[in-house]
Amino acid sequence: MPPTPITATGAAAAPAEAEQAASRLVGHRRFVRANPRTDRFHALAFHHVEVWCADSASAAGRFSFALGAPLAARSDLSTGNSAHASLLLRSGSLAFLFTAPYAHGADAATASLPSFSADAARRFAAEHGLAVRAVALRVADAEDAFRASVAAGARPVFEPVELGRGFRLAEVELYGDVVLRYVSYPDATDAPFLPGFEDVSSPGALDYGLRRFDHIVGNVPELAPVAAYVAGFTGFHEFAEFTAEDVGTAESGLNSVVLANNSETVLLPLNEPVHGTKRRSQIQTYLDHHGGPGVQHIALASNDVLRTLREMRARSAMGGFDFLAPPPPNYYDGVRRRAGDVLSEAQIKECQELGVLVDRDDQGVLLQIFTKPVGDRPTLFLEIIQRIGCMEKDENGQDYQKGGCGGFGKGNFSELFKSIEDYEKSLEAKQAAAVQQS
Length: 438
Known about the structure:
By secondary structure, this protein is α+β, with helices and mostly antiparallel strands. It starts with 15 loop residues before the first helix and ends with a helix. The strands form three sheets. Strands 6-7-8-5-1-4-3-2-9 form a nine-stranded mixed β-sheet. Helices cover 27% and strands 30% of the residues. It contains eleven helices and 19 strands.
């Protein structure tokens, strides 16, 4: 039997100074970026995102078609796993894992994910719909990361276990029903996804150019205690922050903090709703329909977002993902002023044709676009981005791009909010019309 998930007994409280710091947002304009390099463990990068669902084959199939991410590994009845069906999609280092429980009474001892609970997965899917269960980080040592996190106040979920072949896995609570999963393993070019998974060959599979997770955003009812909790047990520093004055519209708004690891390759933004506005904040709409805190959206990075968007939009009407409405044409006059020295006129016109938003900070340029919700509920959606600029060399002389280059679309937030507000208004109008007809 897999080890029993442990409770939070004995966990230390998050440092008071972290909570105090998180509660005093100064907004984007007055925020001073600094990297104190305070990580409590060595976090290398995002490893995977696990989505719990009722039918992993259907969910994985749609995401694969929509994103150009072929099936790369599996653990299910065909591999001797009668506890859950888990299908892994890959595109570059991007790794989406879709997991669904088998029937009641299945043999839990055959599970390839030792922290998996069929009962918990069923409750999760019923409560949240299609939603993210785990944000997994590759760390230097999963046991060290777990022990350091719990000692600093993390609420433990699953104690470190050896998976074989040098792999270790552990989990702590992130927010709501989402866990932060630590995965460690030796460097090896032939390393599998995880022991217990069987590699799948997908010759001729489509590739739309998505390469990695850029950031993963959580929505919570109150920002300060959650930001203090996560920063407290990870040691991650504040990378950016936004208030309603920075990113709201006349009708709604949010407050946001972005946490980052030392290398700024793991970016974890957190949002809270702003109340007292004309319309209910989109963050509150998410919390209501999701049933509490959870992952709001996942940003997927491409090295050529225009090519990626052409591929994705070509499949929107055939079961792929739909996108939010594009901004008005005069928006791109501002793009020419902001980024005309980086993007050619032909590229700006293609951004307009595809509905891509363009923003810029003091370091680089950001191209971004957002899908509509990818499930039945107005909750989880995706962001497709490309960052341009901020190139530096590491200690080995290799080129790399600084994390968060071009920012997080502060200049586009009002356009995004307007698009989401228009989408919500269209849903409300259809609901009202249906009530009148009934």
